[in-house]
Amino acid sequence: MLTGKTVGIIGYGAIGQNVARLLKPFGCRILYNKTRRLDPAEEAAQDVRFARVPEVLAESDVVSLHCPMTPETAGMIDRAALRSMKRSAVLINVARGGVVVEADLVAALEAGEILGAATDVYETEPTPAENPLLRFDNVVATPHIAALAADNFEKGIRQIFGNIERVLRGEAVAAADFVC
Predict the structure, then answer these.
(1) Whole-angstrom Cα distance, residue 142 to residue 134?
(2) Distance (Å, rounded) from C-alpha 85 to C-alpha 81?
(3) Among 108, 106, 99, which residue's Cα sits nearest to residue 75?
(4) Is 60 exposed, middle or buried (0-12, 13-18, 19+ CB in 10 A)?
(5) Which of 32, 107, 104 is nearest to 75 (CA)?
(6) Beta strand 139-141 with 116-119: parallel, antiparallel or unpaired?
(7) CB 141, CB 163: distance < 8 Å
(8) Is the pTM of this model over 0.70?
(9) Residue pLDDT, tens place only, 56-80
(10) Would you please indicate which residues are annotated as catalytic (active-site) residues?
(11) Structural domains in the chain plus CATH codes
């Protein structure tokens, strides 16, 4: 049940903001963290509250990661961060694999320090079959294929083939021209 839960969103760009919008009908309290805080009027309009990462971790029933991989976010969710979360909390990582220290997440799940996790990103991608996260009943683990959702499929395939042609010509790979 999401109704009435506190959801912490770390990385509050376009995707994080869309997640908050989708949670609105559930009456969730939304804590967000991003590099640049929204102005108070925008926070009020979106019905969200800025919080530092330790507060997001400690207060949230669900922590959803949408941040980029930077020197500041690499390994941000380590064993200490996981221990600071509620034992009933769920961690969702749809950001980048290196944001969460996988060995620490495995240890926290084995110790019952958090309730569960969901991820579509891994420290090693594609994730090997022996990745311990794949053996837990309380982990939802999927491949990182959001760009290939039905509404992005055609654009994604054009981007892939365009980049193959660029590489064959010795050109740089182009950034995606669609949101995934």
Answers:
(1) 9
(2) 7
(3) 99
(4) buried
(5) 104
(6) parallel
(7) no
(8) yes
(9) 999 999 999 999 999 999 999 999 9
(10) 96, 125, 144
(11) 6-145 (3.40.50.720), 146-180 (no CATH)
